[in-house]
Amino acid sequence: MIQTRGLSKTFGTHTVLHEIDLNIQAGEIVVLLGPSGSGKSTLLRCLNGLEDLSAGSIEVNSIEVTSTMKLKERQQRMLQIRRQTGMVFQQFNLYPHKTALGNVTESLRMVKKLERTHARHVGERMLSRVGLLEKKDQYPSRLSGGQQQRVGIARALAMEPEIILFDEPTSALDPELVGEVLDVMKSLAQEGMTMIVVTHEMKFARQVANKVIFMDEGRIIEQSDPESFFERPATERAQRFLSKVMDY
Amino acid sequence: MQLVWDNLPFLLKGAGYTLLITIISMFFGLIIGVIVAIARMQGNRPIRWVARFYVSIIRGTPVLVQLVIVYYGLTDYGITLDAIPAACIALSINIGAYLSETFRGAILSIPKGQTEAAYATGMTSAQTMWRIVLPQAARTAIPPMGNTFIGMLKETSLVSVITVTDLLRSADLLIAQYYVYMPFYIGIAIMYWIMSTIFSTILERIERRLAKAY
Ligand SMILES: Nc1ncnc2c1ncn2[C@@H]1O[C@H](COP(=O)(O)OP(=O)(O)OP(=O)(O)O)[C@@H](O)[C@H]1O
Ligand SMILES: [Mg+2]
């Protein structure tokens, strides 16, 4: 479903991703771990074309982008990739000038070209899926962080993506609001959604993931099932990382 | 003051032209402003350069000079415009430059996460601009735009130089007829003031409406 070959990303002279080879199957729930600055966000952003790649190739759902393609062609394909992947952001990034429902229906209208009432029906269905139907007419500023993030998930879901990328979806939340967002993510996992999740919620990673990818300094250091990663990390770097995060 | 009352219809007609020119120039200036702002940020190199050059020239020269160039200057090339269209063209071009700066600032003030969220759901950059960025930028831009608008209302008094019978020139014509200055000047000062105040009030309303979501 998602494949990268030799994916590299360079900002100026600073190489942030070094030849990443990744293979993710439909239905997999991948948790991406690694210290700050290791390139997790950059990888996610490359995967859905928010960031252009410097070298290598990405294939999402048989749409391929390689660094050698012409810029126009690459941009065109990245747009196609974005239409098949959803993204949930750490800071939610809800549109403040639109209601919860408006946030969800915007791209249904603009991208999927659904007509108004149809878009509203779909939007309401998505909001009820994240348990927020009764908040549909509220503006984001009136919602708690947890509610805003659930709207963010509903917005991504509405586009019927093949895969959803989560970049630290609970890191900006007060501790007591983390659970409601994780619950929604768990229910998506149970429904078979393919997901890549960058998170510091180790319990969630262990319970829900079927694959853990550990990154450091722009490289994939380790890839395994959660059980073995958490019990018997193979590399010294992963051990060091785990001993730090497990203190909390 | 009796004189002012007696000649009120004439003065009101002048005020009408002042208003007309302000609104038309503001309307086209707005369109020019949005286009130039976007051109400066998303255009290719030559387009960006042209847009910057335009803004720089307009901001670096007096409105009065711009007015006489459009009205008198162009006649050298056989382009003869009536006074009112000439005034509207010159002022639209002028106001467009100022508003483009306002819009550019407002657009740049919208967090990058907004654009990214829209891209992530598959919107094109044009859709993102019109549906997500500009509506939010409009809110930021309204107060400075209001100032530009009211400034324009007052600056239109310059068009009397190119023979438009606006509010100021109406007063001048009456003064030439009756040989008194003060009543007419006070009269039109009050009329300018009333118009400015009405616009301020309307703008405040719009601002409050747009702020509803926040
Ligand atoms: N737009 C950019 N321009 C220049 N450097 C960047 C840019 N975005 C990220 N970087 C650099 O790339 C490196 C990886 O950043 P990235 O955000 O991907 O890390 P991360 O693993 O997500 O970290 P965190 O856990 O702190 O979110 C960092 O050194 C960062 O400074
Ligand atoms: Mg990050």
UniProtKB/TrEMBL annotation, chain A:
Domain of life: Bacteria
Protein name as it appears in the record: Galactose/methyl galactoside import ATP-binding protein MglA
Gene Ontology CC: plasma membrane
PANTHER family: AMINO ACID IMPORT ATP-BINDING PROTEIN, L-CYSTINE IMPORT ATP-BINDING PROTEIN TCYN
Keywords, sorted A to Z: ATP-binding, Cell membrane, Membrane, Nucleotide-binding, Transport
Lineage: Bacteria, Bacillati, Bacillota, Bacilli, Bacillales
Membrane topology qualifier: Peripheral membrane protein
Organism, scientific name: Paenibacillus nuruki
Principal location listed in the UniProt entry: membrane
CDD domains: ABC_HisP_GlnQ
TM regions (residue ranges): none
From TrEMBL, chain B:
Pfam families xrefs: BPD_transp_1 (PF00528)
Gene Ontology molecular functions: L-cystine transmembrane transporter activity
Keyword DNA damage: no
Gene3D superfamilies reported for this sequence: MetI-like (1.10.3720.10)
Coiled-coil region(s): none
Localisation per UniProt entry: Cell membrane
One cellular component (GO) term of this entry: ATP-binding cassette (ABC) transporter complex
Cited PROSITE patterns: ABC_TM1
Superkingdom of origin: Bacteria
InterPro entries recorded: AA_ABC_transptr_permease_3TM, ArtM/GltK/GlnP/TcyL/YhdX-like, MetI-like, MetI-like_sf
NCBIfam families: HEQRo_perm_3TM
Entry similarity comment: Belongs to the binding-protein-dependent transport system permease family.
Name this polypeptide is given: L-cystine transport system permease protein YecS
Organism: Paenibacillus nuruki
